[in-house]
Structure formats: structure tokens, C-alpha cells
Amino acid sequence: MTKRVRLREELSRQRAALLTSWNLALAPLSERALYADPADQAASDFGHDLAIQVRTRVIARLKQIEHVLMLMQTKHYGWCRRCRKTIPYARLVVQPDTRFCVACLEFMESGR
Questions:
Q1: Residue 29: what pLDDT?
Q2: Residues 5 and 57 reside in one and the same domain
Q3: Distance in angstroms (rounded) separating the CA atoms of residues 103 and 16
Q4: How far is it, in rounded angstroms, from Cα 3 to Cα 14?
Q5: Distance in angstroms (rounded) separating the CA atoms of residues 58 and 14
Q6: CA angle 9–21–32, rounded 5-degree value
Q7: How far is CA 65 from CA 45, 52, 59, in A?
Q8: What is the pTM of this model?
Q9: Cβ atoms 68, 97 nearer than 8 A
């Protein structure tokens, strides 16, 4: 099995896991409850805000995975956009949506 196939399978597994957890959390968020006690109100508001943040992050990660899976279907996936060399597999495992090798990324971030 090629490294690209293994990476695609891992991303597909992650996508399936996120979709499963997302389906469990699809129930609409309850309306914000109103409490007389400020501490109870703060706890309720915090829980509601946290649920929204979790959903936002799950959606962002799913978009990222979908983008990478589409990129993998092109011949450009896995090649540095700056130096045109192959990006090491270990880097793709850590950050599958990367477009630059570590050397080029460090060069660009140094501002040179």
C-alpha cells in the first residue's frame, strides 16, 4: 500500500469519526435558559458558547479534510509550491494540507 493511500485512508477515518460525533451532536442547541442566579446564568451561557465553538471547530476540520482529499486527486499534492521538491511523508502525516516543505516554510516565516 502506498503512502498516499495510507494517508487517504487515515483522513477518511478521521472524517468518518467527525461525522459520527457530529451526528450525535446534531440536536439543535437549546435556547439560552434564563436564571435568577448570576452564577447559574454564567454556567449556562458558558456551556452554550462552548457547544457552538465545538461545532465550529468540527466544521472547520471537516472542510480541511475534504480539501486535502480533493487535493490528493491531483498531481500537485505532496509537492512544495515554492521549491517544487516533494514534501516528506512524515510532514504530510502531521499536516496533510501543507503546501510547503519545512525548509521553505521556515524561510518564508523568517521574512527573508
A1: 57
A2: yes
A3: 33
A4: 17
A5: 11
A6: 150
A7: 31, 20, 10
A8: 0.69
A9: yes
CA 41 to chain centroid, in Å, comes to 32
| Tens digit of each residue's pLDDT (9 = 90 or more) over 47-96 | 778 878 888 888 898 998 999 899 899 888 899 999 999 999 999 988 88
Q: Which residue type, as a one-letter code, is found at position 96?
A: P
Tell me the one-letter amino acid at 110: S
If one counts every other C-beta atom within 10 angstroms of the C-beta of residue 67, the result is 12
Give the Cα separation of 66 and 60 in Å (integer): 10
Query: Residue 25 CB: number of other CB atoms within 10 A?
Result: 12
Residue-number span of the structural domain to which 37 is assigned:
1-75
Contact assessment for residue 87 and residue 78, using Cβ atoms and an 8 Å cutoff: yes
Same-domain pairing of 30 and 60: yes
The dihedral of CA 80, 86, 88, 89: what is its sign? positive
Cβ distance 38 to 46 under 8 Å? no
Q: What is the pLDDT of residue 12?
A: 92
Do residue 25 and residue 63 come from a single domain? yes
